[in-house]
């Protein structure tokens, strides 16, 4: 289990900002997925995920982000990814996932 992964949420009136720290892999993807599902269940449909401190992402993390993006869109909201570091952005570009997600610098 990756004890280095952390989620730091910040709740605004109409949006939730999530800062991710560490590695998004098979174990931490489950943690993030549960957190995002809980937000949707609570009616939070606008989320910005700040990736500036995410060092690594594997296919489990990539798949989770694609699925979450779709779930938020289907709920009438959006999930935006921001500030991806070079290695994380490269993984998204190589797999073609960056074309499916809302990415901002």
Short description:
By secondary structure, this protein is an alpha/beta fold. The chain is 40% helix and 33% strand. It has helices spanning 26-41, 59-74, 86-95, and strands spanning 6-11, 16-24, 46-57, 78-82, 102-104.
Secondary structure: elements and pairs:
Elements: E1 6-11, E2 16-24, H1 26-41, E3 46-57, H2 59-74, E4 78-82, H3 86-95, E5 102-104
Parallel strand pairs: 2-3, 3-4, 4-5
Antiparallel strand pairs: 1-2
Verbal overview:
- The protein has a single domain (6-104), classed as 2-Layer Sandwich (Transcription Regulator spoIIAA).
- Helix content is 40%, strand content 33%.
- The protein contains three helices and five strands; from the N terminus they run E-E-H-E-H-E-H-E.
- The chain has a five-stranded mixed β-sheet with strand order 1-2-3-4-5, with helices on both faces.
- Helix 3 links the parallel strand 4 and strand 5 (102-104).
- The longest helix is centred in the first third of the chain and has 16 residues, at 26-41.
Just give the CATH class. Alpha Beta
**What would CATH call the homologous superfamily?**
STAS domain
The percent range for strand residues is 25-35%
Radius of gyration: 12 Å
Kindly state the mean pLDDT as a whole number?
95
Tally the structural domains: 1
Number of helices: 3
Structural class determined from secondary elements: alpha/beta
What is the string of helix and strand elements?
EEHEHEHE
Contiguous low-pLDDT stretches (5 residues minimum) are none
**Count the strands?**
5
> Level of helix content?
40-55%
- End-to-end CA span: 30 Å
Strand order of the largest sheet: 1-2-3-4-5
Largest sheet descriptor? 5 strands, mixed
> And the CATH topology?
Transcription Regulator spoIIAA
Shape: globular
CATH A-level architecture: 2-Layer Sandwich
